[in-house]
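Worked example 2:
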Amino acid sequence: MVSLCYNLFIYFVNLPDFRLAQIMIFAIEEINRSEMLLPNVSIGYQIYDTCSSRMSSMSATMGLMNGPEFAAGETCNGQSSIHAIIGETESSATMLVSLFVLYLFFFSQISHTASCECLSNRKDHPSFFRTISSDYHQSRALAYIVKHLGWSWVGAVNSDNDYGNYGMAIFLNTAQKEGICVEYSEKFYRTEPEKLKKVVDTIKKGTTKVIVAFVSFIEMGLLIDQLNILNITGLQIIGVEGWITSKSLITPKSFQVMGGSLGFALRKINLEGFSDYVVKAFWETAFPCTQIKENSSQYVINCSRYQDLLALKNYNEDVPEQRYSSHVYKAVYAVAHSLHSLLKCKEQEGFNFTVKFGDRVWFDRTGAAVAQYEVVNWQQDSDGSLQFKSVGYYDASLPPDQQFVLNTENIIWARGQLKPSSICSESCLPGTRKAAQKGRPVCCYDCIPCAEGEISNETGNLTQCPGEYWSNAEKNKCVLKAVEFLSFTEVMGIVLVFFSLFGAGLTVLVAILFYRMRDTPIVKANNSELSFLLLFSLTLCFLCSLTFIGQPNEWSCMLRHTAFGITFVLCISCLLGKTIVVLMAFKATLPGSNVMKWFGPAQQRLSVVAFTLIQVLICVLWLTISPPFPHKNMKYFKEKIILECSLGSTISFWAVLGYIGLLAVLCFILAFLARTLPDNFNEAKFITFSMLIFCAVWITFIPAYVSSPGKFTVAVEIFAILASSFGLLFCIFAPKCYIILLKPYQNTKKHMMGKNIF
């Protein structure tokens, strides 16, 4: 049976890493005793101290290229017995080692603490693995905890190395997406005291009391010292696994500055048997003390040779924390399991195994372990002892809605006070909105009243009211817009209804008067039948204006314009017939003229019907192709809705008006030509004047109609209808009524045949 030996290489620095070296030795000895894992194979190790120096890391890495007999000053022999590396501790140094491993060696590197996201790049670091999760998760979780606690205004400090720069960059990016503003973002390195001073000054001058500190253990110690010196207290520090559970940092002096700190820590794992292994076996075998005879009967223990190491002897009080230790333990076992699979020629699609304390070890596609953190809080117990209390967790392996849990009721805040508020500007009250302050982050704003049509609620969200809604006076609620139309109950509507009914009633009275006097010469002159038809059409003209008042609906919209168009054409057709009668009658008095037989009563009625049918045809086409319809107009006024009748086909509307105008102009021209006829036919003068008023009213109507807003458009149209109707009524019938009522003696055939009747 052949026994094989494989060497592991590990980087550890200073006192805490010395303890981690013991974990590695403990795990290796445990594996070497195992009959199931790597039987007949022994694992050895070499330990290098890099002293937290990148140069020392480089020197130690170069030493890997040679065998153990290699001495300083000799030429590299390239004979190395190393098959795997566990380390380095810091991310920057780990990157250097990873590059050497990639280009110079043929073995893997596993780190237990290097968490920089930059090491997740498998193209640059294909042989790098780690039993700690990437800072990608921790950095995002920092933003989540800030958002969860309602803080939107924070300061940020990070170590000026790969660990701090990459971690802070991910935090800042996530914070921006989560609506968190960063007042300042400062960084420093352990060898840069001037930059450290600048960081402390920035913290002192800053307005935020919540600081996200993505710094490593050494930089955090320096920062705490400076904050203590300047007595800067009341800060709520949010930290990372690099320092948040460091026993050497939590002291009564530092607690004055750091008390209440929150942060993400690696899970606490108890390694069974390790405490006994360290306390008993290590000190008894590694550092035996000698007995010296002090007098004849007494011996004393002399440990002066190990005086520098005596400080470590009581370190077993830290053993229960075991946060990084479990990751070293897992790293050693990862190497052992991979060698075991390799020696067994066993192919695996995925690599995972379970260690003795129950954790399953596996690596994601970037070569990192799954992210699992505790949220710890720096607290002081009733007995005065300082503790790291668990107040929540973050586990990336769980569903998204279960990954982050924080028990805020168990948190002790900075200086034992209430949870600090950390916002640049107070939330705007309902009815006001945020106005960005020039040159400052979006979290800093002034609160100004919302604009018309906008509201804001208790959450400060600005909302534009939808189309049919408008903001109330307080600008905190959208209410239905006021609906406006020309109604029967408002003053303007009542006035227009009055004049409409008054005009219709007056026309009916004139018709009754004419009917009673139908046998008199003044009524019989110029075709009394057309006079009665004209009075009927004028009555309809007055009444059709009522269809324009009230809430528009489908039927009223179709009726108002068509009724108006047809009744006015009927009215003007009658006047046109009367004018033609006057002209024909004058022509008939000429010798040899027989023109009246061509324009007798039948032809007059036919002309009226023909002219009216043309308008009826236009209206039927209008209603068939694109009829008017009720429309909510929200363009004229933002704060209210104008209920109006949309024309449907604009061309049809102007065709109706144009036809009325054409007949009116034709009637005016003919009446104007007939104005100089003998006085017994002088009705043409009044028709001329009535058409002049009619045309003036409707020419004025066009610009007024186009420019009038809302319900005033309807009022202008009604006014034009009433004005032109009253003009026709008074101009045509007032002179005749005057004679009938006040000068009845002139209502005789004798007077009609004479001159100067009127």
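Residues 554-588 form the longest helix (35 residues). Residues 130 and 368 are 5 Å apart (CA to CA).
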